[in-house]
Design goal:
single chain, alpha/beta, TIM Barrel, 7 strands, 14% strand, globular, binds the ligand Nc1nc2[nH]cc(C(=O)O)c2c(=O)[nH]1, binds iron/sulfur cluster, binds magnesium ion
């Protein structure tokens, strides 16, 4: 089930790709990229255990086997592998699946992919801990604004974070803005949500929660 953003609540199958070009402190999937313990869990994951190369045809057949109308591709940063991702997405669209790609917005999308999917672009704010020149890439954001259907989804904790979002929205002309509370468990999610919900509405943006945390907690594979 898609737990976040414009398709929240839709039945879906998930493909989670390994590797990321950022290293957000509060990342909820550090096992996809953190081989040195840099995220705030402090755990150094073993890429030999976490990553597996699988032929795309096998991934495709597995995803189609779920018999659901939507496939969500996330990571890590899936666009780091966008050339290899294209045949999978092409085949899924051919079998009448909607496809959404979750991305951190730092890699401009391949136009062939952009024709086929919805991008949920989640640019990272200062509290992620990465330097601004790594997390905000102007030409990539500009390219995403041109792709019909793109949603910009910002992970926030406080009203000050919303000011940061506002500056990016203005600078890059972002449309379809969604704010999502940060939290890897229900208590943290509730805290962020309570601070954000009224100011987000007042600013004319959309609000999303993280329904999978509410339903299943911080478990892998959901
Ligand atoms: N259910 C569910 N929905 C999600 N939407 C985006 C996710 C992500 O990790 O990018 C995610 C996730 O991890 N689980
Ligand atoms: S961009 Fe996403 S996957 Fe990469 S470190 Fe940040 S939260 Fe994690
Ligand atoms: Mg997640």
């Amino acid at each position: 089930m898609q737990g976040e953003g414009p398709s929240l609540g839709r039945r879906c199958a998930f493909a989670r790709l390994g590797g990321c070009n950022l290293s957000c402190r509060w990342c909820d999937t550090p096992y996809t990229w953190d081989w040195t313990g840099r995220s705030d869990t402090g755990i150094a994951y073993d890429p030999k255990k976490e990553l597996r190369a699988i032929p795309y045809t096998e991934v495709r057949d597995h995803l189609v086997g779920y018999d659901v109308p939507l496939v969500v591709v996330s990571g890590g940063e899936p666009l780091s592998q966008q050339t290899s991702l294209y045949p999978l997405v092409r085949d899924l669209r051919g079998s009448v699946h909607d496809v959404e790609i979750e991305t951190n917005g730092t890699i401009a999308p391949d136009p062939r992919l952009a024709e086929l999917v919805r991008f949920n672009v989640s640019p990272k704010l200062a509290h992620s801990g990465d330097p601004k020149n790594r997390r905000i890439v102007g030409n990539a954001l500009a390219a995403f604004t041109e792709v019909p259907g793109t949603a910009f989804k910002f992970v926030c904790r406080t009203e000050a974070d919303l000011d940061e979002v506002g500056a990016l929205v203005e600078q890059y002309g972002l449309h379809s803005v969604w704010v999502m509370p940060e939290g890897r468990n229900q208590a943290a999610l509730d805290r962020s949500f309570a601070r954000l919900r009224d100011p987000v509405i007042a600013r004319g943006w959309n609000l999303t929660t993280r329904l999978h945390i509410t339903m299943w907690g911080d478990r892998r594979g959901v």
